[in-house]
Every structure is written in structure tokens, then in C-alpha cells.
Input
Amino acid sequence: MKSLELHYSGTFPYTPVSGWTRRQFGYFKSPRGRFPRQEDWVPNPFFTSRKRWCALEVHLDGITLWFATPEELDHVRGVLAGKVLQSTRVPGDSRRVGRPNRHWLSRLPAKAKTPKFRHRFEKLVTSGTPEMAAFRQFYRDEDHP
Output
């Protein structure tokens, strides 16, 4: 069974992929030129830049995947589209964030890593369903309430 659902919220809907496509915190250089301290870290303005957010929920073969932005969807699609899955020791953007077991790909169920599931996921995501079009259009409209 496959289906797509859209969910709307007033806060950013964090997903397991969110930390791999956008950093939650950034830092500015300390006035003394030292390494950044904890108080030098500032939240990424992206997560508070909108008043309303949209999340896409994908149900496929008993597995549910959540995506908060089209950027996350494209990232997962790109990783799952490969003939061989990448190692979780080398994250998609070559950042060393967390241990390999915290990578979203290592937390994905084994059933979702099979070639059959990945092919069906690719077909579902690239199909022109109204939900997929609405999800992408939501983030294209900058003046969305």
C-alpha cells in the first residue's frame, strides 16, 4: 500500500533527515579570536523563518517516511537512487555530525534498503501526484501565510 499525506504546523517539523540537510545551529567568531564557545552558538534563522510549515508523510510497504522540506526529500531520493547504498561512515555532505549509528540511513528499516523498495520509492516520489505537487508548491510560494 502506498499513500502520501500532507501535514501543516506552526513550528518546523524535525525529521531524522533534517540535521543532515540543514544545521540547526551555527556560530559566529568570538571577539577574542578563540575557538567558539557554547554561548557563541546561535540558532539557524531558517527554522524560524516561516510562520507555517508543511511536512510530507510517505507510506510505502508498511514503512512511513517523513520529510519537512523538498530539500530533504531530494537528499533521501538521491541516496536511495544509487545502485549501492553509501556507507553511514561517510555522510552525504561529508560532514562529521554524530556517530555513524545516528545517521538517518543507519536508522532506516532493513526492508527500506532493498532494491525493490528503493525502486518503488523512486517511482512514487517522481510521479506527479497532487500531494507531491502541493508539497513542492508550498515551499515555492514565499508569501504563503
